[in-house]
Specification:
Length: 114
């Protein structure tokens, strides 16, 4: 299972780095039934950290980080993601805590991950 988690995390890291210019510094993923729950630490670029110093900036970074990721996964899951867990991605729920630079993504698949 650890090889599956490692591969899953590598796919997430690469997508976010390619999409946002910086991937997370650390990812912790657990598989629970038909879900992969990932906590991502150290995501923000220096520019996002600067923008996030104000209330409006935090809201902008939060919206950009959550909506962009959800739209990307809704259009097409990243290459290899479904293959590594041997299941089809059905839903992605994500949130981002700008102050702590922590993101959480819950990937829901069509069958349990073994």
């Amino acid at each position: 299972m650890s090889a599956k988690i490692h591969g899953f995390n590598d796919i997430i890291r690469k997508l976010r780095k390619d999409l946002l210019g910086k991937g997370p510094e650390r990812i912790h993923t657990v598989f629970v039934e038909n879900m992969a729950i990932s906590t991502l630490y150290g995501n923000l670029t220096p520019t996002e950290k600067f923008i996030g110093r104000t209330k409006e900036g935090k809201e902008m970074v939060h919206l950009a980080r959550t909506k962009l990721i959800q739209e990307v996964y809704a259009n097409m899951p990243p290459e290899g993601l479904e293959e590594i867990v041997e299941a089809k991605l059905v839903h992605l729920f994500s949130d981002f805590k700008v102050e702590e630079d922590i993101a959480v993504s819950v990937f829901v698949f069509d069958k349990p991950i073994e």
